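ping. complex inputs:
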Amino acid sequence: MTRFANGDLLAFEAGAAVRSASHAIERMRAHGSEGRGISAGALDVLIRLSTTDRGISIGDLARAGGVSSRNVTGLVDTLERDGLVRRVPDPEDRRSVLVEITPAGQAWIEAFRKPSQLAMRAMFQGFTPEDLLTFRDLCLRLATNQHRLADHLRQIGSQP
Amino acid sequence: MTRFANGDLLAFEAGAAVRSASHAIERMRAHGSEGRGISAGALDVLIRLSTTDRGISIGDLARAGGVSSRNVTGLVDTLERDGLVRRVPDPEDRRSVLVEITPAGQAWIEAFRKPSQLAMRAMFQGFTPEDLLTFRDLCLRLATNQHRLADHLRQIGSQP
DNA sequence: CGTAAGTATGTACGTCCTTCATAGTAAGCA
DNA sequence: TGCTTACTATGAAGGACGTACATACTTACG
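pong. complex structure:
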């Protein structure tokens, strides 16, 4: 290994580590939903939709996931083709399209949950509940930090 | 949020959280190496090569990264096209190709390190050194867990 | 020697994600 | 009211990562 200043080394290593960890999770997830053919990005959208009864607009889904709205449009396309999701016009804004989960989508999530939880439990084997809790919180803090940074960068980028 | 059994909920949420976190890191990394045009997968290979003076074979790189060897071939292609990496024949096995980092590659890594560390420091703002340490360790444990699981799955998959 | 296994790579493909361009709609202001 | 500006979703095009399968070459083992 190359040499670093103390704290920066740790941050650098942690960055690399979280990348491996995410790859690991992704791989297990793929294994869990194997055959039922839903891919990572689409799954994110579906899970987000499953947490509410109201529809969510494409733009809001994009902002929530931190990706472009064009991307979400595509993911919703595939989910809709599979019948897991449905587009309905927004009664309050005719530009907007609300996406809601269908009963088939709910069923898919239910079927996905059990094996996914088992896989996750296997992945987090050896973690104490406290480990799990702090780990989750640190991850979320990382995500919010990034959101804040992205906003900041966007601001200083748009007014040089 | 939907309802879960206690521990499984946490594992499920932690899985989602690490995905966001990794996306966050990835985005900052992209921002850091902007213009210098190296992408995530290639960067992983380059970093791995920068940690040793000897060449590493395509297959070993693939196993270390947990990806297919075909994929590594492609990544090495682009790195070689940019002059950051070089293929040399393995003197001990004429099937194998060793990949080594060039001086230009070393220089790239050096140039990348500083802004990357700054970005990481910004990302991990608010983390105590202990947070950072446990976070990194938990991530690595996750990765090793996945490796073990993958091996296990491969074994039971190949002898049904 | 001959067969089996390992190596890198060609071909083909799927998914994620992006940017730019476009048509429809909303909102603010003369 | 009409005009301009901004926002919405989407079409088109493309880059990058990753996979599986087939192939040619080399090694190792019987």
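The first helix of chain B runs from residue 6 to 32.
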